[in-house]
């Protein structure tokens, strides 16, 4: 079969067939009387083998080894192809993500595009200073990029700058940060709730309320402190637990004190603290902290709980409760 017929039947151009021949991949078995290349059935089968291997991503050099090296091991080549394909997919995915972020920023011209690209590169820099400067230029950085950076940042100064930047976007990053609350990695969950805690607005508050039921205690506690600062009474049970468990109890007591300015919430706080004390399974230092928390909670329920604590077996707890009662009586 002549080269033109082979090209038509195989879909491989005559020029490529000549290239294959120059590389020694396939040589026509014969020549016509006029000197034209003539391919045998075996030659054509080899051409199809070459094309099949090229479709897997092999270079022409690798194709030649696969066909002619008797010691060639297909399994090793397939493993290498899998690795290279994964690397290529990762690179293409990264490029796609970057392009989407640039598009989301709606650049007006190429100068804007170049500025956004520079900021995105700075966010991924190994230099903490460069990452922090990029975060502080948040007006130009796509929200999605800020969220990704905030969830992965380990430097506390850069993390703070990223949370500040996200807070400036309003609720723009809340939904994306919410996905971080379900991360299998504890550090990511904590970074997500810390970032949400600094975002103003109702959507962030709703996410913090949901976080009160998170399986991660650190997430629940951070959410409770943030909600307490926002005056949300849903945080009361978690704040009481924090005091009883001596987990950032001082901040939790301050949050309860702020919430107690609302009479309706104050009664709820007093009841919760009294019930926790009545459970009996609380250490002396936690009882003292609960007594201190009751100091700023008005009402009869709080006074009764303090009166009970004034008889506590632990002298420090009893003295603390007695002192607080005297202060309340003097008001």
TrEMBL record:
Domain of life of the source: Bacteria
InterPro entries, sorted: ARM-like (IPR011989), ARM-type_fold (IPR016024), DNA-bd_dom_put_sf (IPR009061), MerR-type_HTH_dom (IPR000551), MerR_fam (IPR047057), PBS_lyase_HEAT (IPR004155)
Residues of the HTH merR-type domain: 1-69
Keywords in alphabetical order: DNA-binding
Molecular function terms from GO: DNA binding; DNA-binding transcription factor activity
One family name in Pfam for this protein: HEAT_2
Cross-referenced PANTHER family: HTH MERR-TYPE DOMAIN-CONTAINING PROTEIN, REDOX-CYCLING DRUG-SENSING TRANSCRIPTIONAL ACTIVATOR SOXR
Protein name (database record): DNA-binding transcriptional MerR regulator
UniProt organism field: Actinomadura viridis
């Amino acid at each position: 079969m002549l080269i033109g017929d082979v090209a038509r039947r195989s879909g491989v151009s005559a020029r490529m067939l000549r290239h294959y021949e120059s590389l020694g991949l396939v040589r026509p078995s014969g020549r016509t009387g006029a000197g034209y290349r003539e391919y045998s059935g075996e030659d054509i089968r080899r051409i199809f083998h070459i094309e099949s291997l090229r479709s897997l991503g092999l270079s022409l050099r690798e194709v030649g080894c696969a066909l002619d090296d008797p010691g060639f091991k297909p399994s090793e080549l397939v493993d290498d192809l899998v690795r290279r394909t994964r690397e290529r997919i990762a690179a293409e995915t990264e490029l796609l993500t970057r392009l989407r972020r640039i598009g989301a920023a709606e650049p007006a011209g190429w100068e804007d595009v170049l500025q956004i690209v520079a900021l995105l590169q700075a966010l991924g820099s190994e230099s903490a200073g460069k990452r922090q400067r990029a975060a502080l230029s948040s007006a130009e950085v796509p929200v999605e990029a800020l969220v990704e950076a905030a969830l992965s940042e380990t430097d506390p100064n850069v993390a703070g700058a990223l949370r500040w930047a996200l807070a400036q976007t309003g609720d723009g990053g809340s939904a994306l940060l919410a996905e971080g609350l379900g991360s299998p990695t504890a550090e990511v969950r904590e970074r997500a709730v810390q970032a949400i805690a600094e975002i103003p607005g109702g959507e962030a508050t709703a996410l913090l309320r949901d976080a009160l039921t998170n399986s991660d205690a650190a997430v629940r506690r951070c959410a409770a402190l943030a909600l307490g600062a926002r005056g949300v009474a849903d945080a009361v049970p978690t704040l009481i637990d924090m005091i009883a468990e001596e987990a950032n109890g001082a901040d939790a007591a301050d949050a309860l004190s702020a919430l107690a300015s609302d009479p309706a919430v104050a009664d709820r706080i007093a009841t919760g603290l009294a019930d926790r004390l009545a459970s009996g399974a609380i250490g002396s230092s936690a009882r003292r902290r609960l007594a201190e928390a009751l100091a700023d909670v008005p009402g009869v329920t709080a006074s009764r709980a303090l009166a009970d604590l004034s008889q506590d077996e632990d002298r420090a707890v009893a003295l603390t409760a007695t002192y607080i009662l005297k202060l309340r009586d003097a008001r």
